[in-house]
Amino acid sequence: MVLLQISEPGQSPQPHQRKNAVGIDLGTTNSLVSVVRSGMPETIADQAGCHLLPSVVHYSTQGVDAVGQEALGFNVSDPLNTISSVKRLMGRGINDVLMLGDQLPYAFQQLDEGMPKIDTVHGLISPVQVSAEILRTLVNLAEQSLDVMLDGAVITVPAYFDEAQRQATKDAATLAGIKVLRLLNEPTAAAIAYGLDAEQEGIIAIYDLGGGTFDISILQLTRGVFEVLATGGDSALGGDDLDHAIAQWLRVQSGMNESLNPMEQRILLEAAKAAKEELTEIDHVNVAILEWEGSLTRSVMNGLIDDLVARTIRSCRRTMRDAGVSVDEIQNVVLVGGSTRSPLVRDKVSKFFGLQPMCSLDPDSVVALGAAIQADILVGNKSAGDMLLLDVIPLSLGIETMGGLTEKIIHRNATIPVSKAQEFTTFKDGQTAMVIHVLQGDRELVDDCRSLAKFELRGIPPMVAGAAKIRVTYQVDADGLLNVTARELTSNVESRIEVKPSYGLGETEITKMLQDSFSYARDDMQARALREQQVEADRMVEDLLTALAKDATSLLSEEEIQCLNLAIAELQKLRLETTEHRVLARKIEAVGKTSETFAARRMDASIKSALAGRSLEDIERG
Amino acid sequence: MVVEKASTCDLEFADSTIQSDKALNTSNNFFEIFSIPVAWDVDIEGLKVRYRALQKEFHPDRYAASSDAQKRLAVQTAAVINQAFDTLTSPLSRAQYLLERKGISADQESYVTTDGVFLMQQIELREALGGVTRSDKPWLALERLRSTVESTYQNLQNEFQQFYSAETLDSAFNTVAKMQFFNKLLHELEQLEYELEDL
Asked: Is residue A48 in some structural domain?
């Protein structure tokens, strides 16, 4: 899979040249893009001056017809082709979607194992495609507004998003032609945005109630290190649910019957949402729905949403326990997400923590601002010397064992990146294959966990039961994405899989969508792919030359040095001559292999010497 | 046909797997990584300072502009640092790691104790655990049980330290096996707490 890198063709990457990277908050209700300009993050407005792009896409028979505010206009008149809250479908199977009940008034089609597709006048549309449209709109907005081509983006996801949801988000970015610098957890992004102002130390809680998801994260801030101690929440609880609780009440009050058509559903929902928003400021609103007129008070509304808010507080309690932190240790609570404007939410949160929550930054844009800061660092504009994020995985990762049980391999709240292995054995004499079933979740039974992938390790030499040693390694990278390897140790038979969750899109599906997409003509794609490999080759040569100059004599034999120098020279030559990106990619891989041992020795030596002979005081001073 | 857990609980995976998985040849032990002496006593706060300093240097975010090969290596390196930190901060895994370095594979799964007193205590504690939800004051019962378990766990750690420093490793091994029982009990208490909240 080629990740499309957006950069000027023919431009050579210069280490100190300023690069352009944005932060994107891909929200359930609204999305935003922001960028760091003269050291400060700011959100980017469209021509009408709006910073929030409603996460809505309207399809006509021709295809995408409108995105954002304009698409929102079709909400009531053309509900089946106006897709909103698509984030709730990302990485979900049909059963999850059905659990949301009648909340999403679309016609769904389940074709295979994957995500359900939405049946529109333009045909079946995947939630990933809808998200890609929103991302593309934001990137275009940023490129026009900044008058540059973007080098990459940090995209935020709820901390409680599982593997499948993260992968689906990354797939959407790929489809939109965006180079993802990092998937960043939303609460962590919010903490960065606040951390800049405050430079504070201590333990803080981030309470993030968005349109469709709830997250609670407990962070420890120490000298610019943002360390997530624990994260929890509910990836299917948000402002939408508050709206539905209110809509349900309005339906009963107005005497509408239970089976509503999609248009009536939208009318009810919009009335509920409007009432909710007004009630944050005043105590009482009048509501009119079709012929019916009535009123809703804040206290009645609070009664309707009380239980949902209580669920979030319960999550807070659990997550603090996971973090090993008590309420009185929390020094600050940050509110994120539009739904935290609700007075009831504020009230309950401040009661629970015994603190006035921080909300000096706009809860709608704080996540995007934090993402922009991180993007600026990752793309290399700002020396990252003083800031580092240490994030965690939200749910345990395990493997199916005999009897339909889940054996945990990596526990929830483990700091990423993380790599762990466990050994397993065969249970039948002469068994030559083994199914590795990768699961996510904290429950004991396989059926209660989410199935991420299944693959088979074949070619195990026949032995008596229990004699084979199969080592299964789980590795989670800094984006929270999983890679699984299985290896039989006596024979060294290996099988590995980049976990593409059952609910994500297949590689071929994405490739096909990319090819179908108008904006990427064939030649264009070739040119981009070649350019990307050239940049990679340059990086590798630069890395290697620097490394050799520094450590060759101490870590390598004369012969090894010659071998590496030869490899570098060949790579440089090919880099200038070839026009075939695959050839260059293969060479890069080969040189990578040749230099692997050297790289590992250097890393090993530098870990060893990093802290050697330094006192705690020295280390703390940095 | 799914996997069956190997009878030998492989406790060396901590560094050996990562070693075999790709090139990272950590000849460094976990203590060395943090530049602290190999010993039971670890200053946890100091360790945290060292841990953060290492991650500031080796985390993949520091290599965002490097080649893919370098990035992959950074992911592995940061994972080793995380693993080392987790191993040394948890009393149980630190004890197991120390024994392992003395050549004692802590195969606790098949450990059979002949210590009658310990067995009785286990049975009593298990019964108490089962009784919590039936109690009139389940939260109080839970807290009492937790403080018993925690103090015993602490005593076992002290015991381990003595055996380990006296190099009576067989006894240290037995103590680690007991620690494992208590560590598991603490996890179960946590689960129970969730269940109580859901009632």
From this structure: yes
Is the minimum CB–CB distance between A373 and chain B shorter than 8 Å?
no
Nearest chain B CA: its distance from A282 CA (Å): 35
Give pLDDT tens digits for A150-186: 889 999 999 888 888 899 999 999 889 888 999 999 9
CA of A372 to nearest chain B CA: how many angstroms apart? 15
Residue A56: CATH number of its domain: 3.30.420.40
Q: How far is CA A155 from CA A33, A89, A207, in A?
A: 9, 17, 19
**Active site members of A:** 25, 87, 186, 208
Q: Which residues of B touch A469 (CB under 8 A)?
A: 6
A418/B57 touch (CB, cutoff 8 Å), yes or no:
no
- Host domain of residue A530: 521-610
H/E stretch holding A425 reads strand A418-425
By DSSP bridging, strand A418-425 and strand A405-410 are: unpaired
**Is A433 in the same domain as A490?**
yes
Judge if the upstream peptide bond of residue A158 is cis by omega within 30 degrees of 0. Answer: no
Q: Does A458 touch chain B (CB under 8 A)?
A: no
CA closest to A541 among chain B residues: B67
A348 is a domain residue = no
- Chain A contact present for B193, CB below 8 A: yes
If asked whether residues A459 and A556 sit together in one domain, one would say: no
- Chain centroid to Cα B178, Å, comes to 13
- For residue A411, the chain B residue with the least C-alpha distance is B86
Per-residue pLDDT tens, chain B, 199 aa: give them: 455 544 332 322 223 333 333 334 456 789 999 989 999 999 999 999 999 999 988 899 888 777 888 888 889 899 999 999 999 999 999 999 999 888 887 655 556 667 778 888 888 888 888 888 888 888 888 898 999 999 999 999 999 999 999 999 888 998 998 898 899 899 888 888 877 876 6
A539 and A493 housed in the same domain: no
Residues A436 and A574 in one domain: no
A498 contact B CB<8A = no
How far apart CA A447 and CA A108 sit, in angstroms, is 24
